[in-house]
């Protein structure tokens, strides 16, 4: 058998651990593995390299992805997936594993419609994919954000300031929520927040100030509508010295945490085993601590339930 693998969309720590597990498991089954470079671009243009145990030696703990990743505009057109199918047929592959976010999975669904057996592995720091409780990279990202904010807070406490920190996550507030909990933030603003919440934030700072608190930490999600104005509003209304910081791409880098390496490895093993057993069109996920696989298209169509726990955590952080 011969299978292909690619990483697509935003990079996430742990992608290399998946690649490593795929190659190791495939080697055990005597399956050849071809890694396509730069996401769907490599599949369209036939840009690949054969992977073996030597090529994945020592990569399990590396951030980023050795296959590189990219967005691919052409794949959004009708022609893109058809060109990819030509490469696939020419190489006589028996399946494809794609590692990425929900966009990458939408692309994979197109390939399944052309008859390519695909397995999707969720790799994105945002933890925003429907039908899985976990996406590879999330744990490392929140650990990095927590560490960076701990550093920032040393200075904030020394000066008696309020720090507003924007964290990544696009329309998902998962990184913001969990980082806020881990850093003991005074308030978290998530996508979809309203003016009422802004007032609640200002009132909380005023109240705490009167009680003698001198430093504050506000976490703002990347997808929050009022992220660019909130620092000014806090300064104007509370008369406290405010600084703001955007953590940015540092959250996507670094060695993957043990949790990310472990889940990534287990997902990679499951993906290869499915293809070996002639299974197809599955999305690997993690639910209640167990690795699961679901029909790819159905999994994509499920709503990404913003569970009740998250609401409860948000209330806990933002309460007085
Ligand atoms: P992340 O969440 O980390 O950004 P992602 O996989 O969601 O990862 P996207 O940029 O949305 O990132 O998608 C990655 C690539 O998948 C796109 O550049 C494109 O090549 C392909 N893709 C996305 N949506 C579709 C679609 N509807 N049809 C075909 N291909 C798609």
CATH class of the largest domain: Alpha Beta
Strand content: 15-25%
How many discrete domains?
Answer: 2
* Largest sheet composition: 7 strands, mixed
Which architecture of the largest domain would the CATH scheme give at its second level? Answer: 3-Layer(aba) Sandwich
Bound molecule types: adenosine-5'-triphosphate
Report how far the terminal alpha carbons are from each other: 60 Å
Mean pLDDT: 96
* Low-pLDDT sequence parts: none
CATH topology of the largest domain: Rossmann fold
The helix-and-strand class reads alpha/beta
CA-based shape? elongated
Q: In angstroms, what is the radius of gyration?
A: 22 Å
Task: Give the tally of β-strands.
Answer: 11
Helix/strand order: EHEHEHEHEHEHEHEHEHEEHH
Percent helix, as a range, is 40-55%
Number of helices: 11
**In order across it, which strands form the biggest sheet?**
3-2-1-4-5-10-11
């Amino acid at each position: 058998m011969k299978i292909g693998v690619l990483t697509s969309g935003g990079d996430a720590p742990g992608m290399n651990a998946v690649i490593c597990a795929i190659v190791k498991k495939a080697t055990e089954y005597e399956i050849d593995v071809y890694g396509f470079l730069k996401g769907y671009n490599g599949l369209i243009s036939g840009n690949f390299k054969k992977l073996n145990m030597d090529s994945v030696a020592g990569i399990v703990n590396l951030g980023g992805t050795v296959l590189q990743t990219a967005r691919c505009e052409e794949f959004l057109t009708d022609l893109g997936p058809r060109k990819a199918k030509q490469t696939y047929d020419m190489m006589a592959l028996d399946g494809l594993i794609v590692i990425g976010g929900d966009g990458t999975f939408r692309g994979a669904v197109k390939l399944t419609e052309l008859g390519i057996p695909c397995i999707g592995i969720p790799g994105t720091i945002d933890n925003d994919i429907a039908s899985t409780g976990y996406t590879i990279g999330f744990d490392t990202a929140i650990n990095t954000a927590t560490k960076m904010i701990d550093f920032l807070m040393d200075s904030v406490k020394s000066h008696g300031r309020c720090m507003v920190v924007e964290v990544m996550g696009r329309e998902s507030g998962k990184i913001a929520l969990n980082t806020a909990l881990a850093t003991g933030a005074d308030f978290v603003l998530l996508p979809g927040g309203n003016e009422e919440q802004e007032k609640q934030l200002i009132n909380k700072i005023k109240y705490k100030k009167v009680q003698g608190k001198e430093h504050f930490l506000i976490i703002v999600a990347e997808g929050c509508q009022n992220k660019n104005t909130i620092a000014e509003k806090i300064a104007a209304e509370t008369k406290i010295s405010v600084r703001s910081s955007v953590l940015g791409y540092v959250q996507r880098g670094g060695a993957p945490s043990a949790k990310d390496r472990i889940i990534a490895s287990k997902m990679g093993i499951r993906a290869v085993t499915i293809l070996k057993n002639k299974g197809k069109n599955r999305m690997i996920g993690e639910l209640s601590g167990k690795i699961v696989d679901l029909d790819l298209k159905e999994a994509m169509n499920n709503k990404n339930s913003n569970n009740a726990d998250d609401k409860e955590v948000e209330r806990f952080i933002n309460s007085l």
